[in-house]
Amino acid sequence: MNVNTKKIIAVAVAVAAIALLLIALASRKTTEGIPNRTVAATIFPLCDIVRNVAGDDLTVACLLPPGASPHTFEPTPSVIRQVSSASVVFVLGHGIDAWAETLADGAEKPTTTVDTNIPLRRALDEEEEEEGHDDEHSDGVDPHYWLSIPNAKLIAANVAADLTARYPDLSAHLSANLDRYRSELDRADVQLRETLTLTGSREIVTLHDAWYYFAEEYGLTIVGSFVPTPGREPTPQYLAALGQAVSRSGSQTLFSEPQISTDTLQPFIHDHQLKIAVLDPLGGTGDRTSYIKTMLANAETIAENQ
């Protein structure tokens, strides 16, 4: 039984075990005449974007705890309560936060996928990674589209459109918040691009395949990823091909991630004389307390280690 199958079973068991709690919470009504002012979002970058658009008028519940990985997360009762208390759950879709969609369905809560107008890229073909496996990209789309500031601007616009439809009395505030935040994102995008001009080599090796939107937006080339599918060990054949690609590129750094174990990296790192630096696709911890700070920190990490 592969990791993804175990994860699906674990989520199903968790949902079944607290079905009565879900039903009770889902059936609660807000006080008559007072709309529900709570919304939810799945991962920290999306939560931060939603919070910037919502401002102080709405409460935003962030479902994935800081430091957790959406690839391995198993929802807890507190997360289920957050879903059941929300008027809508904002999701990235395309398999990365399917656990949230499952919970929302169970609680009879609507979900909004925030990818409208975003140019989505295909996930790597199996022959480009490893053959014969299931992966998180359930519909063949790479779901890591938040790792591009221009895409974040589109996400923010999608969130604003959804919230305006749900809370028309807040339309003026939401519009002003969106304009302000898009200006902040524009300034951050300029700063990020300036930081990456300091990069020596523009070819990078990553831990897993989260960084293609970032690379395409900011003029980088990904030589390869050590773990083409989270939760599945790379085969010896795959690692041999990756090692050859690394040698041809002259890359000296493998960029890991704080949410994924690096235990299996050590032999590969030793064999190819690589150092490790950390890129964080999610943020929400340390000094990465906003989406913008997380993106700028990642650019600085690349510039300092290439």
TrEMBL record:
One of its GO terms (molecular function) is metal ion binding. GO terms for biological process: cell adhesion; metal ion transport. Pfam families: ZnuA. Coiled coil: none annotated. It comes from the Bacteria. Keywords: Signal, Transport. Belongs to the bacterial solute-binding protein 9 family. This is Zinc ABC transporter substrate-binding protein.
